[in-house]
Design goal:
The structure holds two protein chains of two kinds.
Chain A: E1 2-3, E2 12-13, E3 15-17, H1 22-31, E4 36-38, E5 53-56, E6 63-67, E7 72-76, H2 81-88, E8 93-94, H3 106-111, H4 119-122, E9 129-135, E10 141-144, H5 150-156, E11 165-172, E12 174-175, E13 180-188, H6 191-200, E14 206-212, E15 223-230, H7 241-244, H8 271-281, E16 287-293, H9 294-298, E17 316-324, H10 328-342, E18 348-354, E19 370-378, H11 383-396, E20 400-401, H12 411-432, H13 441-445
Parallel strand pairs in A: 3-5, 4-5
Antiparallel strand pairs in A: 1-2, 6-7, 7-11, 8-12, 9-10, 9-11, 13-15, 13-16, 14-15, 14-18, 17-19, 17-20, 18-19
Chain B: E1 3-7, H1 12-23, E2 27-32, H2 35-49, E3 55-57, H3 66-71, E4 80-83, H4 91-96, H5 98-126, E5 129-134, H6 147-167, E6 172-178, E7 181-182, E8 197-198, H7 200-209, E9 217-219, H8 223-233, H9 236-239
Parallel strand pairs in B: 1-2, 1-4, 2-3, 4-5, 5-6, 6-9, 7-8
The chains are: A alpha+beta, B alpha/beta.
Chain lengths: ~450, ~240
Amino acid sequence: MRITNWGKYPVAESTLAAPRSQADTAQLLRGADTAIGRGMGRCYGDSSLAEPLIISSRRLDRMLDFNPATGRLAAEAGVTLSEILDAFAPRGWFPPVTPGTRFVSLGGAIASDVHGKNHHVSGCFGQHTAWVDLVTAGGETVRCSPELEPELFAATHGGHGLTGFIAQAAVDLVPIQSAYIRQETVKAANLGEIMDAFEQSGGWTYSVAWIDCAAAGSGLGRSVLMRGEHARPDELGKLPAKLRAAPLTLPPAHTLSIPVDFPSFVLNPWSVKAFNMLYYGKAHSGVSESIVPYTTFFYPLDAVNEWNRIYGKRGFTQYQFVIPKEAGRAGLEKILARIAASGLGSFLAVLKLFGRQDHPKGNMSFPMEGYTLALDFPIGEKLFPLLDTLDAMVLDYGGRLYLTKDARMSAETFRRGYGALLDDFLAVKQRWDPQWRLQSLQSRRLGLARQGGM
Amino acid sequence: MRAIVILGATSDIARATALAFGQAGWQPILAGRDIEAVGRVAGDLSVRLGRPVPALVFDAAQPETHRAFWENLPGPRPDALFCAVGLLGDHEATRHDPDLAQRIVTANFTGLLGVFALAADEFEQRGKGLLIGISSVAGDRGRAHNYIYGAAKAGFTAFLSGLRQRLSRSGVRVVTVKPGFVNTAMTEGKALPKALTASPQEVAKAIVAVAEKGAEVIYVKPVWRLIMLIIRHMPESIFKKMRF
């Protein structure tokens, strides 16, 4: 069958097996020449696509244990953040790190070592996992943690399934007192202003900006920064009494009070309106405050089912890079100008200042301290040459691309971007998958499909 | 807290429905043939709900155990019984193997009558209660493709229909669910038309929605009501020549 991930590009002609137990998973792995694991298919490109076999964690979807004293949740890899939120947010617990959609699996969050709006405070997802159980290429189950097989643990986070099939894991949830976020919106007229705004928002737990990619000249970098904190019950004064009485319960969807038109919160040409409302709607004051449900703050796009379909059958790719902080201003200026001149990108991009990122030996997670920018590009003929040009600029500034979004970078770009991190990762892979049987379309493209494949 | 006994608790529909009832403030009590599997489902639910969920043995093929099962349920007497027991079987084999055919009829129909009778009597006496059975559109008209399963489900549908009429003045709701195609272990590997196929979560939501009031015979995807209306009313002379 034809299988694609969120960007609908590329297409794998493959078999999708969904085992119901670790034993069945091990049997599948032992019987396959090559395979890769897959969760909810929410990565954009081909990280979790393989031919001829993909092993889905969809049916490994049980929660195993929760310790209310520590917030530690153990669950099978197919459990989604959405299910975790449904079960635990009403009891005062929240994922320690969440990407921009709640429809990712626990296994996927680990394989991508996802980051969120709190990266500068909390790092990546893996900083909060206590242990991971992997089914290795040889069909053995191995538990790894910061103490047990620490290099395997490090390499599995951000390892995109190439160290083993993630079967179950434990993650430490963080306490919250309400289902709401106290949000501040800050207008920035240009790149300098938004970078200052990020610097000034370092004390906030969550921060992210929407940047207008069409703006040029003196308006280059025009953006809106949103920063937030989990609201305390005593900060919910503006809400109706009925909602205040149950602070951990999300308001019914139809009574949400949202500062912008909800369904137009999409990172595509339609979102011009939403951006403009945010940007111009808060007249006079550069900063405005509101109380919003966590769903609005973290998952605006989840309200639009299958929003990826707006890009049509050919699909799209999301380009996400990071460049070191010291290269930030010059680099972003050049890259944004190049994107604006191409006219190919989405109107809006997401900009975020990453904090420091540890890479324990074996780990090749994407972030580094610096600026990360993500935007959508519909797949088309002119696109790939443009992205190659952008790759060269990103690499020259000492940056790299995010594998979870990637569907097209070259092996050379990958190697230059990840450098020594990649070498250490490959040493771990060599140990746990000596025949290099765990491979994806992406890993083949990036030269990771066989020993000495560099 | 109202309690709901869930038979066939390891099925995907039962799991989703137990969670949905749990989230709506009910206490699920799980039962099924394979106690280890039921235990795993109960473990998952207890983590999700933040309260213990009991796991019991119930085997439709052992009707002699059903009275003891029903009378010895843990906790206060239950307010509802939900049955998701079902066995599809390989139909080609079922046509020619009387033992397998018998097993299918037992699992989908005759093996369920006893426990429903006990629950119906208790709820009738109390003047309150909820009985829910998962039947099937396959029971609306027998087709060459799966008529033994269909016949068993037809029997179960008729049984629930009769029960509903009997209990209509006693304050007891009897709900028949005909889910149509559902993405579950039962249908794994089959190519199902997307527009006609529900997820277990959709089935669960539809069931919880009619727990208090509303229709007592539900098709999860409304289009199935229309499809089955047409299929039921086709003249036999045409129907028998069709291949679907």
